[in-house]
Amino acid sequence: MRKIVVAIAALIVSAVPALAQQTPPGGRLGTGLPVPRYVSLKTDRVNLREGPSKDHRTAWVFQRAGLPVEIVAEYETWRRIRDSEGTEGWVLHSLLSGRRTALVMPWAKSGEPPISLLDRPDAKAGIIAHMQPGVIANVRACDGKWCRVMVGMERARDLDGYVQQEKLWGVYPNEQVE
User: Which of 103, 154, 161, 170 could be joined to 128 by an S-S link, Cβ 3.0–4.6 Å?
Assistant: First the structure.
């Protein structure tokens, strides 16, 4: 009887590490960082897959480096992401960057006025530029109401200014970014 109890105890102890490794997606070998969170695409070509492996079919190909996406789950080296239109799928973690970017009002309808990039965080501030919906901005800081952003310009100096946080997709409402 004692041998059986010892054998069962040994079996239970050896099974514990295996059980600990069977955590659900979103945990196993993930980063430990909060989920959801925003990141950006690292390259101009990122395959969005139906599942967390290269064996899964490519459902979409993103072709815009710097595009903000939201990580909604983690599984090993794979991240389930969502774009500003709600499309979800899995990408390899090495194709993502921790650099924070945001899209200027991607939900805006055609004909809406452009969004002002201001010289200080105040609705009455001077206008640096007008931005069309869909412009990608690098997020430098946010205080919960305003974000300081930089917009890269071809053949001109980059623009650095402020935009109301609610007009950006890529930062959470009231989120503070430093």
Answer: 161
Domain ranges of the chain: 37-99, 103-177
CA 138 to chain centre: 13
Going from the C-alpha of 86 to that of each of 47, 71, 72, the distances in angstroms are: 16, 12, 11
Q: Is the pTM of this model over 0.90?
A: no
Give per-10-residue mean pLDDT for the chain (178 aa). 40 37 50 94 97 97 97 97 98 97 94 94 97 96 98 89 98 96
Does domain 37-99 match CATH 1.10.3720.10?
no
Q: Which residues pair with 81 in a beta bridge?
A: 71, 89
CA R_g for the chain? 22
